[in-house]
Amino acid sequence: MPCNLNAICYIDQHNETLGKSSFVVTAVGIVSSQHQNTNIFIHIIAFYPKDVTRDCDLERFKKGDIIRVQGRFSIIETEVEESKIKLIKMVASDICVLNLNEEDLPKSSLSVVLVGTASDNSEVNDDKITLNLNAREYIDNQNNKSLLFNLYHFPNDTHLSPITTKVSRGSSLYVTGYLSLIGELLLIRLTQINFIENTYSSSYKSSNFAWEKKQADNSTPSTLVQSTPSAFDIAKSLLEKPNKKRVKQATTPLNSLKIPKLSSLASPQSSANNEDETLHEKEIQSEISNEENKQEKEEQIVQTPTKPKRGRKTK
């Protein structure tokens, strides 16, 4: 099920290789997160066709640029100076170079769109509503596992609660929100949510009467008007919850994260991984070649004039 990401990042490292029918660009981007006091790293992969006449939504970029990038993504774990960190690996579908200098890199959100399945019923508390979502996006042979996202919003987000309070295990959901990587959590503050199928109770009806709306407003505790908890506060409360399935892992302090090297991300860690990467590159090149062959055949069909039928002329 798809996982899509939109981000603004500074290009710290850049490399370009020549494939059979495309240029393959790999890069490391740095996001100045609006929701957490740390930088987030993105391993970007972009494919550019050799044929300049082909349409391409990927603007060419270089080291030192600030870009807006969109594409499918997954979360991977890598080692930097003997410390494990999480970073985002994505295949770009749209790139736009922004006219900004390095010192002007804005704080921004990691905006995500996910389609997945709820792993359990939603949990409604006085300070927040939480639920877990399983989603998967194929990036390569090594990064094809399902990811567990921790979704949340606050009770005063009244446009979300009619859906989130009805979520049950197995519900198919479409969600949008802002992603934070905090410890072992993939935390998302919801901005939109909807059922893909009608899996919620049909007895639920939205209120259209003024007195019912007033009663609902009056029943909201005044404490909710206080300052909104940060993503770190939400993550802390979720990590403190007892969970038999969760395995505690040693994580690197957020303020001491090192920038991952592009060479270590590109090079496999074992010979088995090397074979898988080579196979994946061949699969990608094969797909690109197939698309080019289809386009050439379509062009030939369009350009070839139809021959007149042979036969006797009628008077």
TrEMBL record:
Residues 259-315 are annotated as: Disordered. This is Uncharacterized protein. Residues 277-300 have a biased composition (Basic and acidic residues). Residues 264-273 have a biased composition (Polar residues).
